[in-house]
Amino acid sequence: MTESGLVVVDKSAGMTSHDVVSRVRRLAGTRKVGHAGTLDPMATGVLVLGVNRATRLLGHLMLTEKGYDATIRLGVSTTTDDAEGEVTATVSAAGLDEATIRSAAADFVGDLLQVPTAVSAIKVDGKRAYQRVRDGEEVELKARPVTVHELTVHEVRVEGETVDLDVSVRCSSGTYIRAIARDLGARLEVGGHLTALRRTAVGPYDLASARTLDELGDSFALMPIADAARAAFSSRDLDDDQTADVRVGRALDIDLDGLTAVFAPDGEFLALYEPRGETAKAVAVFVQPAR
């Protein structure tokens, strides 16, 4: 059986996240593969996959900070808030000056209430929002709190009646870059959508550690689950008695600052623990009890 660990994929355009999962299942020789955070087919970049026991890490990785490079086009609105949708409105953006654009973009940094794009994967009464849209239904999603830690506008280019912005975004999980493009266009009263998106990081995993599917096909390798856990979470090395307690899911009398990966004296990754009152309790245990 394939070992447990993570695969950091540099996804190419045109593939769904499920396409990538299917390919990695074949390469890893196991059905037990999942991913931490969907990337749209148009998007490229970092997609973190877990194999076997490491799939249990993915829910926690989905909550980590993410980084993106994107291109926003002002002056055109679409049904999907990106280039894959149908154009719904065009308004000349050629009269916008760069200072006005940069000032408006700065308003999207901080704690925001963001309405996700209607074609998101959010479930509405048990059905994906994008499927409801495809079925011809009107979908209205509620605004959700997100945090944009940084939004840097790089180049601003006038392209006829439209304006293209190259931006970098560092944000909380659950932030839709398409929604930022839509809302920035609305703020400037010309409409907007996303024409390119590349995820550059999921937590500590970035493009430097990512490999394309072709590269993985030539030489498939996992990031061991212990290395993956040390990279993504605070870590604590335990003694033998504490290790025995972890193996049966007992609370530990240790001080933790937050979600922490705990390790046996030999370096084996044991579990994720978090502070609860005056002790630390297991969130997820990754090892079998000692026999």
TrEMBL record:
Molecular-function GO term, any one: tRNA pseudouridine(55) synthase activity
Domain (tRNA pseudouridine synthase II TruB subfamily 2 C-terminal): residue spans on this chain: 233-286
Entry superkingdom: Bacteria
Catalytic activity: uridine(55) in tRNA = pseudouridine(55) in tRNA
One protein family per Pfam: TruB_N
Active-site annotation: 40
Gene3D superfamilies: Pseudouridine synthase, PUA domain
All residue ranges annotated as the Pseudouridine synthase II N-terminal domain in the record: 25-177
Keywords of this entry: Isomerase, tRNA processing
Residue ranges of domain tRNA pseudouridylate synthase B C-terminal in the record: 178-221
Coiled-coil region list: none
Known EC number: 5.4.99.25
Family note: Belongs to the pseudouridine synthase TruB family. Type 1 subfamily.
Function field: Responsible for synthesis of pseudouridine from uracil-55 in the psi GC loop of transfer RNAs.
Cited PANTHER family: PSEUDOURIDYLATE SYNTHASE TRUB1, TRNA-PSEUDOURIDINE SYNTHASE
Name assigned to this protein: tRNA pseudouridine synthase B
Organism field: Nocardioides hankookensis
